[in-house]
């Protein structure tokens, strides 16, 4: 008899905290298929297989909730909540979408629920926003770090829906069809939001370059 998965008897072992020096990796169809197989293999409740599944996608989930959360210090707790929800529903996962798509859909709902909970209680005025978490997720002491922080700052000026569509497709590397599943909207809407986000970012980069050139001329 196949053992029944009982999430209350198994909490995912804490994966190493997603360090500031790591960004989510780019995924391929093969790697997504591998993590989906891990999810299906973990349905029987085997602790080792469950831990492999958690560790395989922990970085992506942490980065996603850290970018979306209004409280970056809660990213670890939110990530834990995501996996607890996922494990509770793992027996119903059929593999029709990749495990990564399925898991980030749960992550999005978890963050939304956290917003609703936070709205019901007073928020500290000095509480940092999601930008702090995004900056922490940028690789430090590596070429391109300053550019990454600059991109993060630019992203904060975008409308929330465009920022999220850009992040899911361009930073997390989801194809548009899968991003539509994560975001819960049509593929065409995702494409439109990303295009508008790109146009806005390109305009900000041109403005920054123009200001830099003007500063160089004045200095000369």
Automatic annotation (TrEMBL):
Q: Name one Pfam family in it.
A: Sigma70_r2
Q: Where is the RNA polymerase sigma-70 region domain?
A: 53-119
What InterPro entries is this protein classified in? RNA_pol_sigma-70-like, RNA_pol_sigma-70_dom, RNA_pol_sigma70_ECF_CS, RNA_pol_sigma70_r2, RNA_pol_sigma70_r4_t2, RNA_pol_sigma_r2, RNA_pol_sigma_r3/r4-like, WH-like_DNA-bd_sf
Q: Name one GO biological process term.
A: DNA-templated transcription initiation
Q: Which UniProt keywords apply?
A: DNA-binding, Sigma factor, Transcription, Transcription regulation
A GO molecular-function term, please? DNA binding
Q: List the residue ranges of the region (Disordered).
A: 1-32
Q: Where is the RNA polymerase sigma factor 70 region 4 type domain?
A: 150-201
Q: Which family does it belong to?
A: Belongs to the sigma-70 factor family. ECF subfamily.
Q: Which NCBIfam families match?
A: sigma70-ECF (TIGR02937)
* Name of the molecule in the record: RNA polymerase sigma factor
Organism the protein comes from:
Streptomyces toyocaensis
